[in-house]
Amino acid sequence: MNSSRSIRSNASIGDRASPNFLIKRSDNIPNRSSSPPLNNRSSLIHLQDTDKNGPLTKNFTEDDIKYHKIAFERCIDLSERGVITNRERFIQALNYVGYDLPKATIDQLWSTNHEEITFKSFERILNQEKSIDERILEEAFETLYSKDKKFDWNIDFNKFRTDMIEKGDRLTEVEFEKLRRLLGTENGKIDVKKLTKTIGENKDNCRQKIIIEKKEQRRDEIERLSSRPNSPKLNNNNNVRIRIDSTSQKLIIPSGTRSVQIKGAFFCEYFDSPADALYFSIGYSFEIKKNTSVWITLKPITSPYHAGSLFKNLDVRLLLFEKLPRSTERRLIQISSARSGIKSYIELNDLPKGSYEIIPITFGGVLRPRTREVNERPPIKTLRETRGKKYSMSKDYRDALEYIFDVFDFNDNKQLDRNEYNLWTIRTTGEEITNEDWLSIRDHVSLDEGEGISKENFFKLNDFEVQDPDTTETDLWAGLKSIGFNYALELDMMCPFELTVHVNESNIHLESTSFVELTEIKKILIKFLQNKSEKIKLNSTVQCFNYHDDCGSILIVDNKGPHNVRISAQVVNSNNAALTLPIDSRKPPIINIRHETSQIIWFAHKLDSLRPMELDANVQVQ
After folding, report:
1. What is the dihedral of CA 253, 258, 263, 265, to 10 degrees?
2. Strand, helix or coil at 156?
3. N or C: which end of the chain has fewer CB within 10 A?
4. The architecture CATH gives domain 62-128
């Protein structure tokens, strides 16, 4: 994807600096010490058919059921009560208890259960499907290599590696090398008996580690609860308790108003570490000629490329800025504080005539960076195919490009104008389109003056790169990763949205302007929200500002002292909330606050507007 331009990172826009401060966050699926070091998610286990005589009936012991419960609870959605609503977490829960099911089976189970897995349905699935054991593994290997007359329970490692990648296994090069050392391969051969035994032992070790970890968590919780009344560090001033009631109100827009709609997207990226994640949005400008009532709504959009249903309740807000006359500066005048379903909105009865800018924001309550391990896994999809001596675009790549075109076609007119194409190029290469570039593009696809790039011409431009022999598969993937796709061609670091402005004015034009790095927005938000927040004094120089509304909560810490301070913020209870801090973590995150500065500690988002949101946290100066 535009490999002729310098692509600086798998997930970056140009040479942008890391933020001056960071908000701690947990990953979607935590990397715990008990996660299996050997990845057994391999399709070769499923080469043999499942029992064709009907579902299996297993007699799980009491210990088995306890273990299943522990594994299940590790993967539930914290905003729901005892339900897994994320597809990847469902797969993780199955892997924890030794089940490695084919993608087709996962898809069917996920769909049959309406993208919500309760523990009862989880146990039913475990009862019906086959788990991994040494006998099944040996049978699978025997089936896979039965046509090889020289098969003697020893397999060439390179052939094994190739077969695993073709079957959809997700091991990285480093993990394959660890596997080679773990199995002690000699003369480039794998001892199948040793491999199956190692996987079986790994599964048992994983089970024991998870059970031990659960016991330690319970012990720590008991100690924490028993010590709370006598702890000299805790008092009422250290507790931040938030309750936001349910909302059933609907946004009512009078008939006769003029509406203009435009699309956009949030992007998440990082350079070296997920802890340094950056968030980007898009700014939009409009102008009104007279004082008028205005309604602005923002709605997240999901697609088949988004695994699970988590992005449907993305933590979003709207910021409305006034552009100051005869100046390049802007002034924040409004933040969305109300919701109607999954929409966040601003309602103003009398907005003065003038020029304005809208910036949608999100800060990581739901849209989170993928782990470094996942980011470095090799792709399981092919983006181009070889036909003779020529290359052609694969169907998977063409489908992904079609979706990307639709995302960047902000005004939905079936073509990309120069501004839209420029924003796509910035996103994928870090560089803007120059006048010379645009003339060259027009010549390649024979565009008329003022004409935009159609979808077919967009394919054509990208096909030039696919056919270039100097382009590698890695180059093509770098472009997709910069958009937010992972190695499985799923969107986990990008979420589109739909922005609509309603006004009592006959003519209004809404235009996308540029990418906005949301780190810059935090400083503006702090100044804007401090006078609208509840104050919580931590000591003589440090205090919190807790802002909350129908959308959620924003917590700010202000350090007026001459020295830097360290703040611990432990969320001990949460209901119906997505948070940028770890929830119920054993060790509270520590945030450094520089002297005479303020910093946002968390963004808490009410997931379901029809249910109340509750949050209980201990915030302390260390």
Report:
1. -50
2. strand
3. C
4. Orthogonal Bundle (1.10)
- Contact indicator for 127, 56 with CB cutoff of 8 Å: yes
Smallest CA-to-CA distance from 300 within 367, 245, 371 is with 367
The pLDDT score that the predictor gives to residue 37 is 29
Q: What's the pLDDT at 6?
A: 28
Partnered with residue 317 across adjacent β-strands are: 361
Domain 533-621 in this protein, CATH class: mainly beta
Mean pLDDT of the chain: 78
Q: Which residues of the chain have pLDDT under 50?
A: 2-56, 149, 223-236
Backbone conformation region of residue 418, classed left if phi is above 0, alpha if psi is from -120 to 50, else beta: alpha
> Structure tokens of 136?
């099944």
Give the separation between CA 106 and CA 97, rounded to whole angstroms: 15
Fold classification of 257-371+496-521 (topology level) = Jelly Rolls (2.60.120)
The confidence score (pLDDT) of residue 18 equals 26
Radius of gyration from C-alpha coordinates of the chain: 27
DSSP 102-143: -HHHHHHHHHHTTT-EEHHHHHHHHHHS----HHHHHHHHHH
Furthest-apart CA atoms within the chain: distance in Å: 84
Q: One fold for both 134-201 and 533-621?
A: no
Q: At what angle do helices 418-429 and 395-408 cross, to 10 degrees?
A: 120
Closest alpha carbon to 458 in 411, 378, 403: 403
CATH fold, domain 383-483, is Recoverin; domain 1 (1.10.238)
Cα 139 from Cα 58, distance rounded (Å): 20
Geometric angle at alpha carbon 181, from 178 and 186, rounded to 5°: 145
Write the DSSP string, 298-362: EEE---TTS-SSGGGG---EEEEEEEPTTSS-EEEEEE--EEETTEEEEEEEEEPSEEEEEEEE-
| For the chain, domain boundaries | 62-128, 134-201, 257-371+496-521, 383-483, 533-621
pLDDT given for residue 244 in this prediction = 84
Q: What is the pLDDT of residues 5-39, one digit of tens each?
A: 322 233 333 332 222 222 222 232 222 222 222 23
Provide the strand spans (E) within 35-115.
Answer: 83-84
pLDDT score for 85? 81
DSSP string, 184-221: T-BTTEEEHHHHHHHHHHHHHHHHHHHHHHHHHHHHHH
Q: Which of 403, 376, 435, 441 is nearest to 2 (CA)?
A: 441
d(CA 8, CA 431): 10
- Which residue is listed with tokens 């935090």? 522
Compute, in degrees rounded to 10, the torsion defined by CA atoms 459, 462, 464, 465.
-160
Spacing of C-alpha 603 from chain mean position: 16
As a whole number of angstroms, the distance between CA 165 and CA 381 comes to 10
